[in-house]
Amino acid sequence: MIRSELIQKLADENPSLTLREVEMIVSAIFEEIIGALSRGDRVELRGFGAFSVKKRDARIGRNPRTGESVQVEEKHVPFFKAGKLLRDRLNGLEGS
Amino acid sequence: MTGKTLTRMDLSEAVFREVGLSRNESAGLVERVLELMSDSLVDGEQVKISSFGTFSVRSKTARVGRNPKTGEEAPIPPRRVLTFRPSHLMKDRVAAGNKG
Description:
The complex is a heterodimer. Chain A is an alpha+beta fold. In chain A, 40% of the residues lie in helices and 29% in strands. Chain A is built from 3 helices and 5 strands; from the N terminus they run H-H-E-E-E-E-E-H. Chain A has helices at residues 3-13, 19-38, 84-90; strands at residues 42-45, 49-56, 59-62, 69-72, 75-82. In chain A, a hairpin with a 3-residue loop joins strand 1 and strand 2 (49-56). Chain A is elongated and about 60 Å long. The two termini of chain A are 25 Å apart. Chain B is α+β, with helices and mostly antiparallel strands. In chain B, helix 1 packs across helix 2 (23-42). In chain B, 23% of the residues are buried. Classes of the chains: A alpha+beta, B alpha+beta. Strand 1 of chain A pairs parallel with strand 1 of chain B.
């Protein structure tokens, strides 16, 4: 499923909303998550999973083409961990 | 870095601010988005949200694990796990926002 398919399904289920409104709603949700992580916050969605930020330490990297050493600075990356309910559902443990 | 944890309530509030829906309807839509994504993943489909990221289901084969506390061997059955690959946009914004 891609973003536009998600939007279409929601639009079909909510005939009182225009496609444009559904697009705005979907964008607002994902934008809120990205905004939270950019501030260093977590987003915990029980049953689905949790988005957080992980710190990657500075390290000496290597240019794979030239073999040259390059300093890679410390950085923060987004991380997602699936919730228990979703993990269980993926493995056929429905309704647990 | 404020170190807060956002929940469904905060996402509903964001939807509520965006369009003229009630708080209840906003919460319902957030729930439905999560359900549609979950159902799709449970069906083994990839969920690709442009400018956000891609959720995919990977199958892991069975292996022998070990209880880290007791050192005892325990079989781990084949299972499906969920991975999330953030989009470039998300990675860039998260890196920029948490800099320094």
